[in-house]
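Here's a chain:
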Amino acid sequence: MTSRREDKEKTSRKETFSSQAGGEKQRETPITRIAKIVEIVGTSNKSWEDAALVAIEETRKTIRGIRGIKIMDMTAKVAPESGMIVEYRTSTNLSFGVMDED
């Protein structure tokens, strides 16, 4: 059986950073072992790529640390009169790390 401290040491890594005095210091940062995935649909009148970028930009307003994106589906709205695409829709899965608050 391991102690809580040993568990914390196993789930952290040392990060080196420079101080203003020029010396290097190390601090421990937690390793993200769990990711959460949310499905978002972005829309654009320009392109499917722009619709995906809209999805990311809007999601970043409420979710921090987005690590990856997977395009799940691309659809479009077509104007019945002209048969032209008037709105691009990109369904995306966005992943981000879940941090332990301990």
User: Anything to note?
Assistant: Residues 1-31 form one domain. The radius of gyration is 21 Å.
